[in-house]
Hints:
This protein is an alpha+beta fold and about 180 residues long. Helix content is about 25%, strand content about 35%. The strands form 2 sheets. Strands 2-6-5-4-7 form a 5-stranded antiparallel β-sheet, covered by helices on one side. Strands 3-1-8-9 form a 4-stranded antiparallel β-sheet, with helices on one face.
Amino acid sequence: MRLFTALDLSPEVIGNLERLLDRLRPSARIKWSPPENLHITTKFIGEWPEAQFEEVLAALQVLPPRAPIEVRIAQLGYFPNPHSPRVFWAGIHAQGLAELARDTEEALAAIGVPREKRAFSPHLTLARIKEPVPTNSLLAEVSRLPSLEFGSCTADRFYLYQSQLRPSGSVYTRVAEFPFSR
């Protein structure tokens, strides 16, 4: 099983991002994320034996309770940079999110899930850029946006997702839910 943990976004925020994607999509021939796949990953677990699935559930169930997290989606950017982009993203501003990611990392490391080598960098992947393509039109369209604020929502739980890779793209399925306060 290919697994990750994530926060979901409100339907209103997803709608705002869908309108953004509709506007930007014609400006670059890149692999745009379907709106239904937009989420905030807190930990990519990767391949995990199905026979040990219950271990993941048990590890995540003991995360400490926490207050709901206010999430604001704002700004756009590129990894690693706009000159040779591989990922086009929207920024995440959320106090308490880094702590959730750290606690998730610690809980899963205790059962053998490899630790992330890179620092936690919350973002929404809006598109992936597999091979170099001209992005001048995309940059120009972004510069014409009236605002780089895409909405806010409150997260009061996180989810464990299964990711299935298909030729048409990844399909994400919720497999467990973890409220912040029990």
